[in-house]
Amino acid sequence: MEGDEYVLDAPVVRAFIATVRDAIGVGTSPADAIARIRPGFADLLADAEWLPAVYQEPAAESGMGGGIGQWLLYRAGDGSLSLFSLVVPPGTETPVHDHLAWGLVGLYRGTQDEEIFAHDGNALRLTERRALRPGDFYALMPPRDDIHRVRTTSSETSVSIHLLTNDTGCVWRHAYDPESGDVRPFRSGYVNVDCDPAPPGV
Ligand SMILES: [Fe+2]
């Protein structure tokens, strides 16, 4: 597609994105598209060869904080799709955040605990906690299950793979204080590419 960026230009990535585009094209709903994408996503998580070491490295300067690296691998020119790795050092956790788009998230290396939150009046309520091992993955389907926090529980850095139907690193989304429910605008960025600057005069 016009303007697509294959930051990691590898046959595995191109083939996966092609299956995703097909699934979105013929899928009758996000849930249906996700069902069609699942087998290819599982294959991606099971393949130990395709993701270069550089995209499995933490990043000292990062929008997520805590040395968490968010590495763009692919994004659509129109902002409708992105594939990225999220690298979380041992004992580190992300802020509580949302994504504002449907997609799939799966663990590639290490282990994580994921905590899922829901709005409860002005605060957030923890609705589910799950432990993830390599090969485990889940769907994000806003507005349900879109707010979460992940923490690395392994002694090695964890690496998760995200396929989302927006340019997740560059859109303004939300980070939350789970106790007070306070919300702040949040843009994580990517370690390896810039987000478009704001248009002049904005
Ligand atoms: Fe997330």
What does this structure look like?
The chain is an alpha+beta fold. The protein contains 2 helices and 12 strands; from the N terminus they run E-H-H-E-E-E-E-E-E-E-E-E-E-E. It has helices at residues 11-26, 30-46; strands at 5-6, 69-75, 82-88, 96-97, 103-109, 112-120, 123-132, 137-140, 147-152, 158-164, 173-176, 183-186. The strands form 3 sheets. Strands 1-2-3-10-5-8 form a 6-stranded antiparallel beta sheet, with helices on one face. Strands 4-11-12 form a 3-stranded antiparallel beta sheet, with no helix packed on it. The chain has a 3-stranded antiparallel beta sheet with strand order 7-6-9, with no helix packed on it. Strand 2 and strand 3 (82-88) form a beta hairpin. The chain starts with a strand and ends in a 16-residue tail after the last strand. Bound molecules: fe (ii) ion. Fe (ii) ion (FE2) binds at residues 97, 99, 148. The site of fe (ii) ion has 3 residues, from loops.
| Rg calculated over all Cα atoms | 16 Å
Order of helices and strands: EHHEEEEEEEEEEE
Taken from the alpha-carbon principal axes, the silhouette is globular
What is the residue-mean pLDDT, rounded to a whole number? 93
Q: How much β-strand is present in the residues?
A: 25-35%
Total strands: the figure is 12
Biggest sheet descriptor: 6 strands, antiparallel
What count of helical segments does DSSP give? Answer: 2
- Point out poorly predicted stretches: none
Work out the helicity level. Answer: 10-25%
- Give, in spatial order, the strands making up the sheet with the most strands: 1-2-3-10-5-8
Query: Which secondary-structure class do the elements indicate?
Result: alpha+beta
Termini separation comes to 29 Å
